[in-house]
Design a protein that fits this description.
By secondary structure, the chain is mainly beta. The chain is about 0% helix and about 50% strand. The protein has a six-stranded mixed beta sheet, with no helix packed on it. The relative contact order is 0.32.
Length: about 110
Amino acid sequence: QLVESGGGSVQAGGSLRLSCVASGLTFDTVDKGWYRQTPKNECIRVSSIGTDGDTWYDDSVKGRFTISQDNAKNTVYLQMNNVKPEDTAVYYCVVVVNGARGQGTQVTVS
């Protein structure tokens, strides 16, 4: 089970940190990603982190978002800085290998 948190409403230029806690799964054994579903219903991979710690970012968030993980807490984070209105979406934590995801957390940037 994956549980995301940390979403909310923020003004453009602000910051948020999303968290995703896993249970029933050892997070450091799988690749993880953050995806977002936009108001236009587009589902886009925002960032991912591999078991080796390698990270990937969509061009739209490079330099603004940072993905990280805390294996001791079985948690992956997405630090979102300098957010923009186009970052408004529901953000999901996803296990890349099987697509398992949480319930999502809403981020609204005005």
